[in-house]
Amino acid sequence: MALHILQIDKTRFVCGLFWQSLSRPRELNKEAKELGRKIGSDLMVVRRDQSTAQAGYAQSSESAGRTLHSLGAAVSKTVALEGAYYDGLLQPVHNWLAALALPDGQWAYFAVRDANFLPNGDFAGSKEEVLDRLYGDYALGGWNVVIGDESLAGQGFHNFNARRIESLLPQRKDGGLRVHRWWRLRQIAPQRVQLWRLAAGVALCVGVGGGVLGWQHWQAQRRAAELALQAQREAEQATVQKPWATQPMPAATVQACANRLEHLTPGGWQLDEYVCQGGQFSYAWSRSAATVATLREEVPQAVIDAGGEKAQWSGALAVAVQAQGEELLVERQVVEPLLAQMQGLGLQLRLNKRSVPPASPQGGAPAWQAYGFQLDAKGVAPQQLAAVLQRPGVRVEKISYRGMAWLLEGVIYAK
């Protein structure tokens, strides 16, 4: 992917980095450098967003240098901190696309899935080239929002957020750009031992067969390293990217949700729905016989519609207990006991089989199974149900409270 260098304010930025995920939280820089050497890059930047870490790579042979800053890293940090509007709320976004006009007449394109740049999801080119990429990726589905120049507002993208590139970069009080040092590309120093060995191998090949053979030998070594790296990354992703390992256990999720249910009839307004999902809680009320003023007294942050009849409020849901990557049980060990216990409580656990990704990009058999579930509490306290659900591979994804009734929705992961 060709690099594109531009200047915003007094800072020089670069688009077109090659992004790769990192999996060793305590050794991010070391892992990033090792990975960079294996793929033949000598410049890198490391970003951390929403419990994920990635390294973006470039080569000085493509006019990159340590004076450049990653535009993708800067923009993604702003999106991670500010979130975006979708489904009527300002909330965190993990899957987003962006197409933004640049000051030099070109356009920048970013594609982020599960808070990670796609390997080629950092690109700059003409407006036509960027829109071609945008339409192609958008058709795949699964995006929370599309962030883009206001000229794209009529293109039919759902949850479209109109933004200019300047609004996605932090500003100082005087209006200038606030630059962070971690955006800047860093040099990946070569490993002396490896260089000595490589030089010796090339010298030997030159001695017996000339410079051409030495060059071919070096290219073969590099290609072998790339293939080994690809296999290693695939194995690591199959191990690390377990969805249940990043989601809190049921008891912690339910307790955190129940703790934020405080405004059932604020100022005399009627609660329509209370929902906990995706690390957020949200309220929806109807006015009934009350007034806007009485609601404001109890919930100053409420967002009231133009007619003054409906109101909403949402915020972050703090879950005290962290997720854990426990070993999964086989299907019969987890699904059937849950069905039996819920039936004993007079409840129905509705299940549906979910599709899961294959164990490898080549289409190997899935490493686990997933069953979505819905559970109508029917008067049983949600904390009691959470205690029953508290077992390996079970996660609660959404909790709803309507008309004094609780509905729990989630997923059961099993071998």
Explain what you see.
With 415 residues, this protein is an alpha+beta fold. It has 4 domains: 184 residues, no CATH class; 39 residues, no CATH class; 106 residues, no CATH class; 53 residues, no CATH class. The longest helix has 30 residues. About 4% of the residues have low confidence. InterPro entries: PAP_PilO (IPR009663). It holds the Pfam family PAP_PilO.
Briefly say what this structure is.
With 415 residues, the chain is of the alpha+beta class.
Question: Reading side by side through the largest sheet, how are the strands ordered?
Answer: 17-18-16-15-21-22-20-19
Low-confidence stretches: 192-196, 204-210, 236-240
Please state roughly what percent of the residues sit in beta strands, choosing from under 5%, 5-15%, 15-25%, 25-35%, 35-45% or over 45%: 25-35%
> For the residues shown, what is the average pLDDT?
85
The helix/strand class is: alpha+beta
Features:
415 residues; 8-stranded antiparallel sheet; alpha+beta; 4 domains; 5-stranded mixed sheet; 9 helices
Helices and strands in order, then pairings?
Blueprint: E1 4-8, E2 11-15, E3 18-21, H1 28-38, E4 43-49, E5 52-58, E6 69-70, H2 71-82, E7 84-86, E8 89-91, E9 96-101, E10 107-113, E11 116-125, H3 127-138, E12 145-148, E13 160-162, E14 186-187, H4 192-209, H5 211-240, H6 250-259, E15 270-277, E16 280-286, H7 292-298, E17 303-304, E18 310-316, H8 331-344, E19 349-354, E20 369-376, H9 382-389, E21 394-402, E22 405-414
Parallel strand pairs: 2-6, 9-12, 12-13
Antiparallel strand pairs: 1-2, 3-5, 4-5, 4-14, 7-8, 9-10, 10-11, 15-16, 15-21, 16-18, 17-18, 19-20, 20-22, 21-22
Helix pairs in contact: 4-5, 6-9
InterPro entries: PAP_PilO
Pfam families: PAP_PilO
